[in-house]
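Write out this protein's structure.
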Amino acid sequence: QVWSTVTSTHLQTLRGHRRCVNALVIAQDGTVYSASRDGIVRTWSGEDGTFLGTVGGPPHATLVLVVGNDDTLYAGSTDNTVRVWSRQGWDGPRLLRTLEGHTDMVLSIAQSNDGKVYSASDDSTIRVWSAANGSHIGTLEGHTNSVNVVAVAADGMVYSGSDDGTLRVWSGLDGSPIRTLQMGDEIMTIAIGAGNTMLIAHGCHISTWNGVAAETAILCVLDSVVNAMAIGQDGRLFIVCWDDETVHVL
């Protein structure tokens, strides 16, 4: 569904997937990529919603999509892999490599400005890869349950949230653990705003943290578990709750 961020009116529906849509990402040139449990990544025009084609791949559900800093597309899947595509192949996106090593499905992907790619998995680990050649650099271990989200701040610090109820902070230089926050509920997603101010979705709560204080502060409590959120260019917060099928704008 496409909505106006100005008036909140419904503009358009993009149709084509045969099962639920798990991920959506917009490249800087406006191209829209959507991934579904039907195993297909579809490409759309950001101008008028025209269907442009599909990104080939395995018959496995793609759970996360990220557009890389080097004009690549990263797709994390239920087959425990991350596939890396060049967005600019002569006849469409071209598969560059497949990152293998996780022992369970990939739930989140993030890229740093110093050439690293981080993938978080249901296997409780975060693997670190070279964006240049896909080589495995290291593994961040410490979570005791599924790692639902990994994010990299502008200063290179790495943050991860898990079903074990913790938010962990890691050094972007060597991957060493720096800090652990106990949130009490499973962390589904996080968003990093200006000045590394962080929004943490845990259970039905959204809390804020400045990266320094010993404790977080609750921003709001919703009626359903928060599954996804994003900070818009205008500073507004968009929150998605799957259980009650709502999108909240703060």
